[in-house]
Amino acid sequence: VQLQASGGGLVQAGGSLRLSCAASGRTFSRYAMGWFCQAPGKEREFVAAISRTGVSTIYADSVKGRFTISRDNAKNTVYLQMNSLKPEDTAVYYCAADSGDWSPKSRYEYEYWGQGTLVTVSS
Questions:
Q1: What is the pLDDT of residue 101?
Q2: 80: which strand partners?
Q3: What is the per-residue pLDDT for 100?
């Protein structure tokens, strides 16, 4: 499956962004989806994940209550709504797809990755 992330940009602290990740190539509903972020000099970190049907979601503690992951299997797209953004949210955000047993927080479980989209939050 090919993944294309978009929606990043520059926003002031307290603002919002909505990231999208469009999938093509194989049946999107076969994949659990995740969002990860990577700030300069840091390792790629888990942000949020959603199950194949969208019934189950899980979030990193740092984004709970501020970010919402969702998916539209008819449109082959997963979203990350980011509210109340903080300067520490600044990073490149990557979407990823996992066809195996769901271990959402481990980046090693995801077989396919998008190219990343940069989110910059100014103070």
A1: 82
A2: 19, 69
A3: 84
